Amino acid sequence: MSLLASEDLAEGTHNVKQGLPDLLRNTHDVTSQWMEENTTKEETELNDWANLPHVVLENVFEQLNEVSLLRAQFVCKRWYDVIRHSASLWRDKSFRFSGRDPRDLTHGPYKYASSFTRTFGRYLERVEFKLFSPVTSSVCKKFQKCVKICLNSLIKTKAHLKDFSMPALQLDRSQWMLYREDMCSALARFFCKSQHTFERVDFPGTRANFDDGYKILYALGYNTGRTVTHLDITDMMISRRPMFDIPQFVECFKHFRCLQELELNYSYISEDLLEVLAANLQENSLQVLSTSVTQHDPHNQVIWGHSWAALANRCRDLKVEFYFQRVMTYEQHFRILLPQIPLSEASFDGCYFADRDWQIRPTIASILPRFQSTLERLIIELPDTREVFETELLSLLSLCPHLWYFKMSAYTSTRFLDKLLEAVSEKRCNLSVIKVRIYVRDYDTDHEEIDLERIYTKYRDLITNDLIDYYATCCVSM
After folding, report:
1. 318 CB-side CA count, 13 A
2. Whole-structure pTM value
3. How far apart (Å, rounded) are the C-alpha atoms in residues 304 and 310?
């Protein structure tokens, strides 16, 4: 190779070495710019949801169910913080277990409930514990321990609960024999140590013995009686001695000052209870008193009208509702439905049972007209009683100016419905809700169905324009 060629090769190599850093630098700049543009675009798309305002994310998360909400918290740290620290997402919770569901026979659902109250208990405002069909004692044991742990967590987190419900516990069942006392003690302790914020407490169907039920009710009244406005203790306690004859039961109600709605059995009511309510409740506080009169409860107590009158004078907006179940004789109704009661609703339910001594006709003709100035709702469910009372019932419906709701399931004729709608169209009756189920004696209902179609066509304008709700049907009683 010549000397000139060697010098040219050396010069070319030197130029390449000098230009290589500039080339690499330019390549790096182009690559970095491309990556920055694409990465920024992808991150923007991914972070759009994470960067939404807290309030907007809360509104979005409120549309999700609980399972989706618990999954969404692991999408990113931002969502985790919003979901875990948003009180509006965790205000209501219902823990429901079933003794017949295979999943509830394991410890998983109960551990989940305990973990939930530890994590979100401080946000809860309304909580419900319900156990369906406790067929075995092991299910009752798991449920009792779970409730105890949850209640302790609610105490530690200082939850400001407003509503607490534990319906249909049925502690009188044999499966609860070893655990009913611990359950009631845990509830009493919870009401003693919890925050005094309760407004609504429901224990329908608890069926505890008097000693256990008394502990719960006394603890509730003594600690939170000034805040509770709604109390449901229907079938809460059972006792060999009639409840209306136990002074300690009446003592519990001395602490309730602000009750607006009270639901209980008629067997719990006595003259002493009415006097205590009239003496201790704030003026005009109690608005609704719902009373269930059942066949298995003792209801032979003597209550004079002046006790009802004293309560009605103390709470002038009081409306009393009576629900009769398989209590259908005139003598029983006459002794219970005193004229001094501000009766707003009367319900008579035969519970698919017929008795030759039942007589609803005298009650409709002689007792209910005494409440014509206060009666607003009337319900008659007599699918197995073939007593005829159409004339008396039409007279009663036309006599009560404030009666707006009527529901009936009984052996009657389509002529009754025709006359009733005629009375409404002529303004002789002020009903706005009519629900009628006509029972027939044979399996052929073609004639009644044709009549019902004709009646609907005749009063179509009235039904569609003036009535809030209407239905009429016919069926065969089993």
Report:
1. 27
2. 0.86
3. 11
